[in-house]
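Teaching assistant here, posting this on the class forum so everyone can see the example we discussed in section. The complex has two components, and the goal was to see what a joint structure prediction looks like when all of them are supplied at once.
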Amino acid sequence: MSVMRYRAVVDVLLKRSILDPQGRAVEATLRRLGNDNVSDVRVGKRIELVLEGERAEVERQVREIAEKVLSNPVMEDVEVSLEEA
Amino acid sequence: MSVMRYRAVVDVLLKRSILDPQGRAVEATLRRLGNDNVSDVRVGKRIELVLEGERAEVERQVREIAEKVLSNPVMEDVEVSLEEA
């Protein structure tokens, strides 16, 4: 149970069933610029943070932060990854 | 040279040397909520897109899109990854 530093990455994207206006705007721009092979553009957030602690506890904590603070579970999906910093 | 569908992920974050006010605000909030083991919070964008084409050409194209359209190279770092969709 050693205390370590971990780098967590939290990716937050709108659920697939919800219209993503920012993604649509980027897609329209890319196509206007000639990228007509581009589709399904989605724009979300990437949050990086460093946490100190014991791995299992840090995993639990960052998942709670991701679901309760950094995302809106009604509209957004969230993915968490963790590595030693 | 087969035509395939690829899913690209473009992560855009402010360069380390540039103050990230949104990250600072999130960090202050997390600490106020009792997460005093959290530091170095950074907030960026994650853009997902699907491209059709031949792999080498799609790689070149998505890198150009990432650097010229989706990020500001003066202030931001960008990372690209690609996988078969």
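For the discussion questions: The helical segments of chain A are 21-32, 55-68. The longest strand of chain A covers residues 38-53. Think about how each of these relates to the inputs above.
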